[in-house]
Amino acid sequence: FIKLPKLGYLRYRAGRKIVGKIKAVTIRKSSTNKYYAVLSLDCENQAIKGTNKKVGLDVGVSDLVITSDGQKYQTIRFDKLIEYKKHQWEKKLARRRLLAFKDIQKQKKLRLLEHKSLDQYKNYQKAKIMVAKYSEKVANQRKDYLHKITTELVNSYDTIVIEDIKINKLLKKHNLARAIANQSWRELRLMLEYKCAWYGKQLIVIDPYKTSQICSQCGYDDGKHELDVRTWTCPHCHAHHDRDINASKNILNTGLGQTLVR
Ligand SMILES: [Zn+2]
């Protein structure tokens, strides 16, 4: 339970145990009428045991995260799983909104002194909440997945190197899969930033310059690779590369090089 001023005791559920002292509580109501308590805590040092391992991460569209150790976390399109049901409610919402507007127009024509507002159309409001619920479910599933990935990474590695992605550059291509990947990358980076700070790990952000065209073994610059080139062989040292894993290795090397210079 959580005790709040004026409201008293409320049933409370959370994924994590509360550690430390509660400094402040903010109550938030979502568009689906759920209540959330956001707690600010004063915590002791939570650093987790070091593993002495370092990793570079590349991000992509079909695979969300590719590590320099060769592990791939695939992209899951949570939106597709409920696409049909959500669309049904979106259609209902559009229809009910139109009906409500027509009804309001009619009342205005009849010069009724008081006409109803959109809030008073119960079925329209219900459809609105249903659509919001589906959007919320997709967002929650995506966040849960990202939390699992980032927690695993922070637990397994002491130093994590990522690319600084220029969001504007990628947004020029209008494509839903890319837009979704974009959103996930942004959340992923935020999670890594605060989790590394919490658990005493190091996050290095590098400029993604040529990371997908240089051979990670000998440093040969093979020129620009088109996006459909998934594997290639270095003409200099003959190493065979998976495009994404090679890129994440370059990201790791660049990140480690930066720390040496500093
Ligand atoms: Zn090479």
Description:
The chain is an alpha+beta fold and about 260 residues long. It folds into two domains: about 1-45, no CATH class; about 45-260, no CATH class. About 45% of the residues lie in helices and about 20% in strands. It has helices at about 80, 85-110, 120-155, 165-170, 175-200, 245-260, and strands spanning about 1-5, 10, 20-30, 35-40, 55-60, 65, 70-75, 160-165, 200-205, 230-235, 240. The strands form four sheets. Strands 7-6-5-8-9 form a five-stranded mixed β-sheet. A two-stranded antiparallel sheet has the order 1-2. Strands 3-4 form a two-stranded antiparallel sheet. A hairpin with a 3-residue loop joins β5 and β6. α2 packs antiparallel against α3 (about 120-155) and α3 (about 120-155) crosses α5 (about 175-200). It starts with a strand and ends with a helix. Zinc ion binds near residues 215, 218, 220 and 236.
Computed CA radius of gyration, to the nearest angstrom: 25 Å
How many helical stretches? 6
Q: What molecules are bound to this protein?
A: zinc ion
How much strand content do the residues show? 15-25%
> Which word captures the global form?
flat
Helix proportion of residues, in percent?
40-55%
In round numbers, the mean pLDDT is 88
- The helix/strand order is EEEEEEEHHHEHHEEEH
Alpha-carbon distance between the two ends: 49 Å
Number of strands: 11
> How would you sum up the major sheet?
5 strands, mixed
Strand order of the largest sheet: 7-6-5-8-9
